[in-house]
Amino acid sequence: MSLRKIGVIGLALVIMTGVLSGCSGGTQTQDTKAGTEAAKTEAAKAAGTDKAETDKTEAAKTEAADAVGETKAEEIITEAAAQTGKDKENKDITLGISIFTRTHVFYNRVEEAMEKKCEELGVKAIFMDADTDSEKQLSQVQDFITQKVDAIIICPVSTAGSNSCLELANKAGIPLLTAFTKSDGDSICHFGTDENVGGELAGKYIEKALPEGGKAAIITYDDVENCVLRAEGCKKYLEANCENIEVVDEQNYQGDAEKASAITQDFLLKYPDLDLIFAVGDPAAMSAYTIINGAGKEIKVIGYDGNPEAVNEIAKGGIWIADVAQDPEGIGQAMIDSAVKVIHGEEIPKEKYIEPYIIDSENVSEFQK
């Protein structure tokens, strides 16, 4: 307690004594009144001093918070995770997981692999379907934060849109990891497929499928960076190595299988001598395959994902000749394992990319179930 505060308290006691004396006699002296006014003045000054000290304290807190905000998100989250989670048992850990979409077989495989790994490690998980909607995914991350999950994993709907998710998680001090589509923000960890290699593999297989040259078209998905990289990798390889193969058209199916069907019909009308269609995802490849078969054409199809429907059609030896395959099970399980390690304060790789591979008639039997 400051000397000023002690003085004020003492003065107040003296005044109270005088007041009580005056009350007993039925009158209050001028000296008592003056003393009372002086006490009020001193009290007000002391209160003003206390307020100034409080304001300084609050300003210091604000300044400290700003300084923390300028620290790298990764450092804040890693430190928080190490302090609060390293002693947690797995049974007390809860993960919040937002899947790109449940309408895509590929992401169903990812979710199943994650569920299996969670069960194996004994951790709880809350799964949500972003349904290819960035705003919906952001809302899901907000829900995870409200539920105080220990870590968040998202399969981003879009590169740019996912940055808001990261900012929210960073502010809450919850580590956020991304899978497949890379965010333009700074996530703790990102696992995915090396899409540049995947696109190049598609280009090489087109070269193999059209040894005499020919015309190819690409069904793209320009809203998702992964798919953009696949198309670009394919075109770069063909431009650099295959002068006799022309990419006559490419159109964005926007993740809509019906639109992929319409695009394929448009290709058939515009290019009656088309030789091959490369689709950057198996849903689009299936749409193309169905339309081509229905039209009785012999246009070859190459897909991307390695989903069971692709494997089944390749095994039949028809126009679906190959697929660039990913490892959704491996990546899904690795994400869960990495999230738990972060919570326990362990080090994990900042990024990890798994190379895709080709499934065709030569090795398709290895992938049939």
From TrEMBL:
Gene3D superfamilies: 3.40.50.2300. CDD domains: PBP1_ABC_sugar_binding-like. Residues 26-68 are annotated as: Disordered. Residues 1-21 form the signal peptide. SUPFAM superfamilies: Periplasmic binding protein-like I (SSF53822). GO terms for cellular component: cell envelope. One of its GO terms (molecular function) is carbohydrate binding. Residues 96-347 form the Periplasmic binding protein domain. It is found in: Cell envelope. Residues 39-68 have a biased composition (Basic and acidic residues). It holds the Pfam family Peripla_BP_4. InterPro entries: Peripla_BP_I, SBP_2_dom. Keywords: Signal. PANTHER family: D-ALLOSE-BINDING PERIPLASMIC PROTEIN-RELATED (PTHR46847:SF1). Belongs to the bacterial solute-binding protein 2 family. This is D-ribose-binding periplasmic protein. It comes from Robinsoniella peoriensis.
